[in-house]
Amino acid sequence: MHDGGLHVEGVALTDVATRFGTPCYVYSRAALTMAYAAYRDALQAHGLAERSLICYAVKANSNLAILNLFAELGAGFDIVSGGELARVIAAGGDPGKIVFSGVGKSREEMRAALEAGIHCFNVESASELEHLSEVAGSVGRRAPVSLRVNPDVDPKTHPYISTGLKNAKFGVAFDEAFALYRRAATLPHIAVKGIDCHIGSQLLDPAPAAEAADKVLALVDRLAAAGIALEHIDLGGGMGIQYRTDEPAPAAAEYLAPMLSRLAGRREKLMFEPGRSLVGNAGLLLTRVEVLKPGEEKHFAVVDAAMNDLMRPALYDAWHDIARVGADTTAKGAATAETMSYEIVGPVCESGDFLGHDRLLALNEGDLLAILSAGAYGMAMASNYNSRPRPAEVMVDGSIVHLIRRREDVTQLFVLESTLPREG
Ligand code: LLP
Fold first, then answer.
1. CATH number of the domain within which 205 lies
2. Residues spanned by the domain of 313
3. Is 1 part of any domain?
4. Which of 78, 139, 260, 295 is least surrounded by Cβ atoms within 10 Å, i.e. has the fewest?
Protein backbone atom coordinates (compact mmCIF):
# COMPACT_ATOMS: atom_id res chain seq x y z
CA MET A 1 0.00 0.00 0.00
CA HIS A 2 1.39 3.38 -1.03
CA ASP A 3 -0.15 6.79 -0.49
CA GLY A 4 -2.96 7.00 -2.99
CA GLY A 5 -4.21 3.45 -2.58
CA LEU A 6 -3.14 -0.04 -3.57
CA HIS A 7 -0.44 -0.38 -6.19
CA VAL A 8 0.94 -3.28 -8.19
CA GLU A 9 4.64 -2.54 -8.59
CA GLY A 10 4.72 1.16 -9.57
CA VAL A 11 1.17 1.38 -10.87
CA ALA A 12 -1.89 2.56 -8.95
CA LEU A 13 -4.85 0.23 -9.35
CA THR A 14 -7.10 3.28 -9.68
CA ASP A 15 -5.19 4.11 -12.88
CA VAL A 16 -5.60 0.57 -14.17
CA ALA A 17 -9.36 0.81 -13.61
CA THR A 18 -9.56 4.15 -15.38
CA ARG A 19 -7.57 2.96 -18.39
CA PHE A 20 -8.84 -0.58 -18.81
CA GLY A 21 -12.14 -0.71 -16.92
CA THR A 22 -13.34 -3.38 -14.52
CA PRO A 23 -13.45 -6.27 -13.91
CA CYS A 24 -9.81 -6.67 -14.87
CA TYR A 25 -7.12 -9.20 -13.98
CA VAL A 26 -3.84 -7.53 -13.03
CA TYR A 27 -0.55 -9.46 -12.93
CA SER A 28 2.89 -8.42 -11.76
CA ARG A 29 5.82 -9.36 -13.96
CA ALA A 30 8.21 -9.05 -11.00
CA ALA A 31 6.10 -11.39 -8.86
CA LEU A 32 5.93 -14.00 -11.63
CA THR A 33 9.68 -13.79 -12.11
CA MET A 34 10.32 -14.08 -8.37
CA ALA A 35 8.08 -17.13 -8.03
CA TYR A 36 10.02 -18.87 -10.79
CA ALA A 37 13.33 -17.83 -9.22
CA ALA A 38 12.25 -19.38 -5.90
CA TYR A 39 12.07 -22.81 -7.59
CA ARG A 40 15.39 -22.31 -9.38
CA ASP A 41 17.07 -21.22 -6.15
CA ALA A 42 15.72 -24.22 -4.25
CA LEU A 43 17.02 -26.57 -6.95
CA GLN A 44 20.35 -24.74 -6.95
CA ALA A 45 20.67 -25.10 -3.19
CA HIS A 46 20.47 -28.89 -3.60
CA GLY A 47 22.87 -28.94 -6.56
CA LEU A 48 20.02 -29.97 -8.86
CA ALA A 49 19.55 -26.90 -11.06
CA GLU A 50 21.59 -28.22 -14.00
CA ARG A 51 19.68 -31.44 -14.35
CA SER A 52 16.17 -30.26 -13.73
CA LEU A 53 13.35 -28.69 -15.69
CA ILE A 54 10.49 -26.63 -14.28
CA CYS A 55 7.45 -27.28 -16.47
CA TYR A 56 4.86 -24.59 -15.78
CA ALA A 57 1.35 -26.12 -15.63
CA VAL A 58 -0.35 -24.09 -18.34
CA LYS A 59 -3.85 -24.76 -17.00
CA ALA A 60 -3.27 -22.37 -14.09
CA ASN A 61 -3.08 -19.36 -16.38
CA SER A 62 -2.62 -19.78 -20.10
CA ASN A 63 -2.32 -16.17 -21.25
CA LEU A 64 0.30 -15.94 -24.01
CA ALA A 65 2.22 -13.17 -22.23
CA ILE A 66 2.59 -15.33 -19.13
CA LEU A 67 3.66 -18.37 -21.17
CA ASN A 68 6.13 -16.22 -23.07
CA LEU A 69 7.59 -14.81 -19.85
CA PHE A 70 8.17 -18.30 -18.45
CA ALA A 71 9.60 -19.49 -21.78
CA GLU A 72 12.09 -16.60 -21.65
CA LEU A 73 13.04 -17.62 -18.11
CA GLY A 74 13.87 -21.10 -19.43
CA ALA A 75 10.78 -22.99 -18.27
CA GLY A 76 9.23 -26.00 -19.91
CA PHE A 77 5.47 -26.57 -19.87
CA ASP A 78 3.00 -29.14 -18.60
CA ILE A 79 0.01 -29.26 -20.95
CA VAL A 80 -3.27 -31.18 -20.85
CA SER A 81 -4.78 -30.52 -24.27
CA GLY A 82 -4.11 -29.75 -27.90
CA GLY A 83 -5.28 -26.22 -27.15
CA GLU A 84 -2.58 -25.76 -24.54
CA LEU A 85 -0.01 -27.21 -26.97
CA ALA A 86 -1.01 -24.60 -29.55
CA ARG A 87 -0.79 -21.81 -26.96
CA VAL A 88 2.70 -22.80 -25.82
CA ILE A 89 3.92 -22.87 -29.41
CA ALA A 90 2.21 -19.54 -30.18
CA ALA A 91 3.90 -18.03 -27.12
CA GLY A 92 7.36 -19.12 -28.28
CA GLY A 93 7.73 -22.06 -25.87
CA ASP A 94 10.13 -24.87 -26.79
CA PRO A 95 8.13 -28.01 -27.75
CA GLY A 96 11.14 -30.06 -26.68
CA LYS A 97 10.43 -28.96 -23.09
CA ILE A 98 6.73 -29.91 -23.04
CA VAL A 99 5.23 -32.75 -21.01
CA PHE A 100 1.69 -33.81 -21.86
CA SER A 101 -0.46 -34.91 -18.90
CA GLY A 102 -4.14 -35.86 -18.69
CA VAL A 103 -6.34 -38.95 -18.49
CA GLY A 104 -8.11 -38.61 -21.82
CA LYS A 105 -5.76 -37.56 -24.62
CA SER A 106 -7.41 -37.94 -28.01
CA ARG A 107 -5.58 -39.55 -30.93
CA GLU A 108 -5.64 -36.16 -32.64
CA GLU A 109 -3.93 -34.55 -29.66
CA MET A 110 -1.35 -37.35 -29.53
CA ARG A 111 -0.55 -36.87 -33.22
CA ALA A 112 -0.17 -33.09 -32.85
CA ALA A 113 2.14 -33.51 -29.86
CA LEU A 114 4.26 -36.15 -31.64
CA GLU A 115 4.57 -33.91 -34.67
CA ALA A 116 5.56 -30.96 -32.49
CA GLY A 117 8.31 -33.15 -30.94
CA ILE A 118 7.35 -32.84 -27.27
CA HIS A 119 9.63 -34.03 -24.50
CA CYS A 120 7.33 -36.65 -22.97
CA PHE A 121 3.80 -38.02 -22.67
CA ASN A 122 2.67 -38.67 -19.11
CA VAL A 123 0.60 -41.79 -19.77
CA GLU A 124 -2.20 -42.45 -17.29
CA SER A 125 -3.62 -45.88 -18.28
CA ALA A 126 -2.88 -49.16 -20.06
CA SER A 127 -5.33 -48.21 -22.83
CA GLU A 128 -3.71 -44.86 -23.38
CA LEU A 129 -0.35 -46.58 -23.81
CA GLU A 130 -1.78 -48.79 -26.57
CA HIS A 131 -3.47 -45.83 -28.31
CA LEU A 132 -0.26 -43.83 -28.19
CA SER A 133 1.73 -46.74 -29.55
CA GLU A 134 -0.68 -47.06 -32.52
CA VAL A 135 -0.66 -43.35 -33.25
CA ALA A 136 3.14 -43.15 -33.02
CA GLY A 137 3.37 -46.12 -35.40
CA SER A 138 1.02 -44.44 -37.86
CA VAL A 139 3.19 -41.32 -38.03
CA GLY A 140 6.43 -43.28 -37.99
CA ARG A 141 7.72 -42.01 -34.66
CA ARG A 142 8.58 -43.32 -31.21
CA ALA A 143 6.61 -41.66 -28.44
CA PRO A 144 8.66 -40.68 -25.36
CA VAL A 145 6.73 -41.89 -22.33
CA SER A 146 6.51 -41.61 -18.55
CA LEU A 147 3.85 -43.44 -16.62
CA ARG A 148 1.94 -41.24 -14.22
CA VAL A 149 1.70 -43.46 -11.17
CA ASN A 150 -0.87 -43.05 -8.46
CA PRO A 151 0.94 -43.60 -5.14
CA ASP A 152 -2.21 -43.73 -2.98
CA VAL A 153 -1.10 -40.91 -0.68
CA ASP A 154 -3.53 -38.48 0.93
CA PRO A 155 -2.45 -34.94 -0.03
CA LYS A 156 -4.69 -33.39 2.65
CA THR A 157 -6.35 -30.81 0.46
CA HIS A 158 -9.83 -30.06 -0.95
CA PRO A 159 -11.38 -33.30 -2.33
CA TYR A 160 -11.96 -31.78 -5.79
CA ILE A 161 -8.23 -31.15 -6.20
CA SER A 162 -6.90 -34.36 -4.59
CA THR A 163 -5.58 -36.66 -7.27
CA GLY A 164 -3.23 -39.14 -5.63
CA LEU A 165 -5.64 -41.41 -3.76
CA LYS A 166 -6.64 -44.85 -5.01
CA ASN A 167 -10.20 -43.78 -5.76
CA ALA A 168 -9.10 -40.96 -8.12
CA LYS A 169 -9.41 -41.22 -11.90
CA PHE A 170 -5.77 -40.20 -12.24
CA GLY A 171 -2.66 -42.22 -12.95
CA VAL A 172 -1.79 -45.90 -13.15
CA ALA A 173 -2.46 -47.83 -9.93
CA PHE A 174 0.83 -48.16 -8.11
CA ASP A 175 0.68 -51.96 -8.01
CA GLU A 176 0.09 -52.19 -11.76
CA ALA A 177 2.83 -49.79 -12.81
CA PHE A 178 5.70 -52.28 -12.86
CA ALA A 179 3.88 -54.62 -15.24
CA LEU A 180 2.83 -51.73 -17.47
CA TYR A 181 6.45 -50.52 -17.69
CA ARG A 182 7.46 -53.99 -18.84
CA ARG A 183 4.74 -53.90 -21.48
CA ALA A 184 5.81 -50.39 -22.58
CA ALA A 185 9.40 -51.56 -22.95
CA THR A 186 8.30 -54.15 -25.54
CA LEU A 187 6.40 -51.71 -27.76
CA PRO A 188 8.45 -50.62 -30.78
CA HIS A 189 6.86 -47.18 -31.05
CA ILE A 190 7.20 -46.34 -27.38
CA ALA A 191 10.41 -45.07 -25.76
CA VAL A 192 10.29 -45.40 -21.97
CA LYS A 193 11.80 -42.22 -20.54
CA GLY A 194 10.57 -41.48 -17.07
CA ILE A 195 8.06 -41.58 -14.29
CA ASP A 196 5.55 -38.99 -13.14
CA CYS A 197 3.43 -38.40 -10.07
CA HIS A 198 1.09 -35.56 -9.06
CA ILE A 199 -0.98 -36.07 -5.94
CA GLY A 200 -3.04 -32.87 -5.73
CA SER A 201 -3.08 -29.12 -5.59
CA GLN A 202 -2.82 -26.41 -2.91
CA LEU A 203 -0.73 -28.67 -0.66
CA LEU A 204 0.57 -26.85 2.40
CA ASP A 205 2.22 -29.79 4.15
CA PRO A 206 5.32 -31.13 2.36
CA ALA A 207 5.05 -34.58 3.99
CA PRO A 208 2.57 -36.20 1.55
CA ALA A 209 4.65 -35.13 -1.48
CA ALA A 210 7.79 -36.52 0.19
CA GLU A 211 5.99 -39.78 0.95
CA ALA A 212 4.90 -40.01 -2.70
CA ALA A 213 8.51 -39.33 -3.78
CA ASP A 214 9.71 -42.23 -1.62
CA LYS A 215 7.28 -44.58 -3.31
CA VAL A 216 8.26 -43.32 -6.75
CA LEU A 217 11.99 -43.70 -6.04
CA ALA A 218 11.53 -47.26 -4.79
CA LEU A 219 9.73 -48.11 -8.03
CA VAL A 220 12.46 -46.43 -10.11
CA ASP A 221 15.07 -48.61 -8.37
CA ARG A 222 13.00 -51.74 -8.85
CA LEU A 223 12.63 -50.95 -12.56
CA ALA A 224 16.37 -50.32 -12.90
CA ALA A 225 17.06 -53.71 -11.34
CA ALA A 226 14.78 -55.23 -13.98
CA GLY A 227 16.72 -53.49 -16.76
CA ILE A 228 14.38 -50.53 -17.29
CA ALA A 229 16.49 -47.46 -16.54
CA LEU A 230 14.55 -44.21 -16.41
CA GLU A 231 16.05 -40.89 -17.46
CA HIS A 232 13.82 -38.55 -15.50
CA ILE A 233 11.60 -38.29 -12.46
CA ASP A 234 8.70 -35.83 -12.59
CA LEU A 235 7.24 -35.00 -9.19
CA GLY A 236 4.31 -32.95 -10.49
CA GLY A 237 2.98 -29.70 -9.11
CA GLY A 238 0.83 -28.98 -6.10
CA MET A 239 2.74 -26.58 -3.87
CA GLY A 240 0.21 -24.41 -2.06
CA ILE A 241 0.19 -20.62 -1.73
CA GLN A 242 -1.02 -18.18 0.89
CA TYR A 243 -4.63 -17.15 0.32
CA ARG A 244 -5.42 -15.62 3.69
CA THR A 245 -3.38 -13.44 5.97
CA ASP A 246 -3.90 -15.81 8.88
CA GLU A 247 -2.93 -18.96 6.94
CA PRO A 248 0.72 -18.82 5.94
CA ALA A 249 2.08 -21.15 3.25
CA PRO A 250 5.58 -22.61 3.34
CA ALA A 251 8.23 -20.92 1.18
CA ALA A 252 9.28 -22.87 -1.92
CA ALA A 253 12.66 -23.78 -0.41
CA GLU A 254 10.97 -25.18 2.68
CA TYR A 255 8.24 -27.08 0.83
CA LEU A 256 10.60 -28.57 -1.75
CA ALA A 257 13.48 -29.47 0.60
CA PRO A 258 12.21 -32.92 1.69
CA MET A 259 11.71 -33.93 -1.95
CA LEU A 260 14.97 -32.42 -3.17
CA SER A 261 17.08 -33.98 -0.45
CA ARG A 262 15.79 -37.40 -1.59
CA LEU A 263 16.82 -36.64 -5.18
CA ALA A 264 20.20 -35.05 -4.54
CA GLY A 265 22.48 -38.07 -4.87
CA ARG A 266 20.76 -39.65 -7.89
CA ARG A 267 21.52 -39.67 -11.60
CA GLU A 268 18.05 -39.09 -13.08
CA LYS A 269 16.90 -35.70 -14.32
CA LEU A 270 14.28 -34.04 -12.18
CA MET A 271 11.11 -32.30 -13.27
CA PHE A 272 8.31 -30.38 -11.56
CA GLU A 273 4.95 -29.19 -12.90
CA PRO A 274 4.05 -26.18 -10.75
CA GLY A 275 1.04 -24.08 -11.71
CA ARG A 276 -0.54 -22.18 -8.83
CA SER A 277 2.72 -21.46 -6.99
CA LEU A 278 4.17 -19.66 -10.04
CA VAL A 279 1.19 -17.41 -10.79
CA GLY A 280 -1.34 -17.42 -7.93
CA ASN A 281 0.06 -14.66 -5.75
CA ALA A 282 1.17 -12.66 -8.79
CA GLY A 283 -2.36 -11.72 -9.85
CA LEU A 284 -5.49 -10.03 -8.57
CA LEU A 285 -8.94 -9.34 -9.87
CA LEU A 286 -9.89 -5.68 -9.83
CA THR A 287 -13.59 -5.00 -9.48
CA ARG A 288 -15.91 -2.09 -8.69
CA VAL A 289 -18.75 -1.94 -6.21
CA GLU A 290 -21.93 -1.39 -8.22
CA VAL A 291 -24.57 -1.53 -5.50
CA LEU A 292 -24.63 -1.61 -1.70
CA LYS A 293 -27.64 -3.47 -0.43
CA PRO A 294 -28.13 -3.41 3.31
CA GLY A 295 -30.25 -6.29 4.55
CA GLU A 296 -31.83 -7.44 7.79
CA GLU A 297 -29.38 -10.28 8.29
CA LYS A 298 -26.62 -9.52 5.82
CA HIS A 299 -25.25 -6.55 3.97
CA PHE A 300 -24.44 -7.17 0.34
CA ALA A 301 -21.87 -5.41 -1.78
CA VAL A 302 -22.69 -6.26 -5.39
CA VAL A 303 -19.54 -5.88 -7.48
CA ASP A 304 -19.04 -6.03 -11.25
CA ALA A 305 -17.02 -9.28 -11.12
CA ALA A 306 -18.85 -12.56 -10.60
CA MET A 307 -18.50 -16.32 -10.39
CA ASN A 308 -18.03 -16.48 -14.15
CA ASP A 309 -14.90 -14.30 -13.80
CA LEU A 310 -13.50 -16.07 -10.71
CA MET A 311 -15.07 -19.43 -10.07
CA ARG A 312 -12.95 -20.63 -7.15
CA PRO A 313 -15.15 -19.35 -4.31
CA ALA A 314 -18.32 -20.87 -5.85
CA LEU A 315 -16.68 -24.16 -6.81
CA TYR A 316 -14.40 -24.91 -3.86
CA ASP A 317 -15.69 -22.49 -1.27
CA ALA A 318 -12.22 -20.98 -1.68
CA TRP A 319 -11.10 -17.93 0.27
CA HIS A 320 -9.47 -14.95 -1.41
CA ASP A 321 -8.52 -11.93 0.68
CA ILE A 322 -10.37 -8.83 -0.51
CA ALA A 323 -8.93 -5.34 -0.06
CA ARG A 324 -10.42 -1.94 -0.71
CA VAL A 325 -8.19 -0.17 -3.23
CA GLY A 326 -8.77 3.21 -1.59
CA ALA A 327 -8.09 6.77 -2.74
CA ASP A 328 -10.50 6.29 -5.58
CA THR A 329 -11.63 9.65 -6.91
CA THR A 330 -14.84 8.16 -8.29
CA ALA A 331 -16.00 6.89 -4.89
CA LYS A 332 -18.50 9.12 -3.16
CA GLY A 333 -17.68 10.28 0.33
CA ALA A 334 -15.22 7.53 1.24
CA ALA A 335 -14.58 9.15 4.60
CA THR A 336 -18.18 8.65 5.70
CA ALA A 337 -18.40 4.89 5.15
CA GLU A 338 -18.89 2.71 8.18
CA THR A 339 -16.95 -0.53 8.58
CA MET A 340 -19.27 -3.52 8.53
CA SER A 341 -19.46 -7.12 7.48
CA TYR A 342 -20.26 -7.53 3.79
CA GLU A 343 -21.11 -10.41 1.54
CA ILE A 344 -19.13 -9.62 -1.61
CA VAL A 345 -21.29 -10.94 -4.45
CA GLY A 346 -21.55 -10.67 -8.21
CA PRO A 347 -24.51 -9.90 -10.49
CA VAL A 348 -25.01 -13.53 -11.65
CA CYS A 349 -28.38 -15.12 -10.91
CA GLU A 350 -27.23 -17.79 -8.46
CA SER A 351 -26.86 -17.73 -4.71
CA GLY A 352 -23.51 -19.48 -5.22
CA ASP A 353 -22.28 -16.34 -6.94
CA PHE A 354 -20.10 -14.91 -4.22
CA LEU A 355 -16.47 -13.81 -4.07
CA GLY A 356 -16.22 -13.53 -0.30
CA HIS A 357 -18.37 -14.00 2.79
CA ASP A 358 -18.37 -11.87 5.89
CA ARG A 359 -15.70 -9.31 4.96
CA LEU A 360 -15.15 -6.35 7.23
CA LEU A 361 -14.90 -3.34 4.94
CA ALA A 362 -15.90 0.33 4.83
CA LEU A 363 -17.52 0.68 1.43
CA ASN A 364 -19.24 3.13 -0.81
CA GLU A 365 -20.79 2.47 -4.18
CA GLY A 366 -18.14 3.07 -6.86
CA ASP A 367 -15.27 1.86 -4.68
CA LEU A 368 -12.68 -0.44 -6.20
CA LEU A 369 -11.85 -3.77 -4.59
CA ALA A 370 -8.92 -6.09 -5.24
CA ILE A 371 -9.65 -9.82 -5.00
CA LEU A 372 -6.18 -11.04 -4.11
CA SER A 373 -4.17 -14.13 -5.10
CA ALA A 374 -6.29 -14.63 -8.20
CA GLY A 375 -3.49 -15.25 -10.69
CA ALA A 376 -4.01 -19.03 -10.77
CA TYR A 377 -7.20 -20.74 -11.95
CA GLY A 378 -8.91 -17.35 -12.20
CA MET A 379 -9.08 -16.21 -15.82
CA ALA A 380 -8.21 -19.76 -16.90
CA MET A 381 -11.53 -21.00 -15.51
CA ALA A 382 -13.61 -17.96 -16.44
CA SER A 383 -16.73 -18.47 -18.54
CA ASN A 384 -19.36 -16.41 -20.31
CA TYR A 385 -22.21 -17.51 -18.04
CA ASN A 386 -25.06 -14.99 -18.09
CA SER A 387 -23.56 -13.77 -21.40
CA ARG A 388 -20.94 -11.80 -19.55
CA PRO A 389 -17.84 -10.89 -21.57
CA ARG A 390 -14.69 -12.11 -19.85
CA PRO A 391 -12.46 -9.49 -18.18
CA ALA A 392 -9.45 -7.74 -19.63
CA GLU A 393 -6.01 -8.87 -18.44
CA VAL A 394 -3.05 -6.57 -17.90
CA MET A 395 0.55 -7.14 -16.86
CA VAL A 396 2.34 -4.53 -14.82
CA ASP A 397 6.08 -4.16 -15.40
CA GLY A 398 7.53 -1.47 -13.13
CA SER A 399 5.60 1.67 -14.02
CA ILE A 400 4.29 0.32 -17.33
CA VAL A 401 1.01 -1.53 -17.88
CA HIS A 402 0.66 -3.88 -20.84
CA LEU A 403 -2.77 -4.96 -22.00
CA ILE A 404 -2.31 -8.73 -22.51
CA ARG A 405 -5.93 -9.60 -23.28
CA ARG A 406 -8.58 -7.19 -24.43
CA ARG A 407 -11.94 -7.27 -22.69
CA GLU A 408 -14.33 -9.42 -24.66
CA ASP A 409 -17.00 -7.70 -26.64
CA VAL A 410 -20.62 -8.82 -26.31
CA THR A 411 -20.90 -9.46 -30.06
CA GLN A 412 -18.01 -11.94 -29.86
CA LEU A 413 -20.06 -14.08 -27.51
CA PHE A 414 -22.50 -15.29 -30.15
CA VAL A 415 -20.45 -14.98 -33.30
CA LEU A 416 -20.33 -18.79 -33.68
CA GLU A 417 -24.10 -19.19 -33.28
CA SER A 418 -26.87 -19.05 -35.85
CA THR A 419 -30.63 -18.84 -35.79
CA LEU A 420 -32.66 -21.58 -37.52
CA PRO A 421 -33.50 -21.13 -41.21
CA ARG A 422 -36.94 -19.60 -41.82
CA GLU A 423 -39.64 -22.13 -42.60
CA GLY A 424 -41.40 -22.24 -46.00
N1 LLP B 1 0.31 -31.40 -12.96
C2 LLP B 1 -0.88 -32.01 -13.11
C3 LLP B 1 -0.94 -33.31 -13.76
C4 LLP B 1 -2.06 -31.38 -12.65
O5 LLP B 1 -3.23 -32.00 -12.79
C6 LLP B 1 -1.98 -30.10 -12.04
C7 LLP B 1 -3.18 -29.42 -11.56
C8 LLP B 1 -0.72 -29.49 -11.94
C9 LLP B 1 0.40 -30.18 -12.39
C10 LLP B 1 -0.52 -28.15 -11.31
O11 LLP B 1 -0.86 -28.15 -9.97
P12 LLP B 1 -0.61 -26.85 -9.07
O13 LLP B 1 0.89 -26.63 -8.97
O14 LLP B 1 -1.27 -25.71 -9.75
O15 LLP B 1 -1.22 -27.18 -7.78
N16 LLP B 1 -8.82 -25.35 -10.30
C17 LLP B 1 -8.26 -25.76 -9.03
C18 LLP B 1 -6.92 -26.44 -9.17
C19 LLP B 1 -6.94 -27.63 -10.11
C20 LLP B 1 -5.60 -28.31 -10.24
C21 LLP B 1 -5.60 -29.27 -11.36
N22 LLP B 1 -4.35 -29.90 -11.63
C23 LLP B 1 -8.20 -24.55 -8.11
O24 LLP B 1 -8.60 -23.46 -8.51
O25 LLP B 1 -7.81 -24.68 -6.96
1. 3.20.20.10
2. 7-22+281-407
3. no
4. 295
**C-beta of 198 in contact with ligand 1 (< 6 A):** yes
What Rg do the C-alpha atoms of the chain give, in angstroms? 23
**Main-chain phi, psi angles of 146, to 5 degrees:** -115, 150
User: Do 118 and 244 lie in a common domain?
Assistant: yes
By most ligand atoms within 8 Å of CB, the mutation choice from 273, 307, 373 for ligand 1 is: 273
- Do residues 291 and 263 share a domain? no
Cα distance between residue 241 and residue 275, in whole Å? 11
| Ligand 1: nearest atom to the Cα of 101 | 3
Instruction: Indicate whether 143 belongs to any domain.
Output: yes
Ligand 1 binding pocket includes 78 (Cβ within 6 Å): yes
Query: Are 229 and 375 in a shared domain?
Result: no
State CA 209 to chain mean position distance: 18
State how many domains the chain has. 2
Please indicate whether residue 93, judged by its CB atom, sits closer than 6 Å to ligand 1. no
> Whole-angstrom Cα distance, residue 305 to residue 391?
8
- 252 and 363 fall within a common domain: no
Atom of ligand 1 nearest to the CA of 377: 24
Q: Which CATH number covers residue 388?
A: 2.40.37.10
Q: What is the mean pLDDT of residues 17-28?
A: 98
Cα 171 to Cα 168: distance, rounded to the nearest angstrom: 8
Residue type, 337: A
CA distance 296 to 290: 20
Per-residue pLDDT tens for 194-229?
999 999 999 999 999 999 999 999 999 999 999 999
Q: Which one-letter amino acid corresponds to residue 377?
A: Y
- Tell whether pTM > 0.90: yes
Q: Is residue 335 part of a domain?
A: yes
Measured on CA atoms in the order 165, 170, 171, 172, is the torsion positive or negative? Answer: positive
Per-residue burial over 210-235, b if 16 or more Cβ lie within 10 Å, else e, is: bbbbebbbebbeebeeeeeebebbbb
For residue 197, indicate whether it is catalytic: no
Supply the pLDDT for residue 336: 72
Provide the total of helices (H) and of strands (E) in the chain, helices listed first: 12, 20
Q: Which atom of ligand 1 approaches the CA of 237 most closely?
A: 13
Q: What share of the chain is helix, strand, coil (3-state, %, to 5)?
A: 35, 25, 40
Cβ–ligand 1 contact at 275 (below 6 Å): yes
The answer to the question of residue 423 being in a domain is no
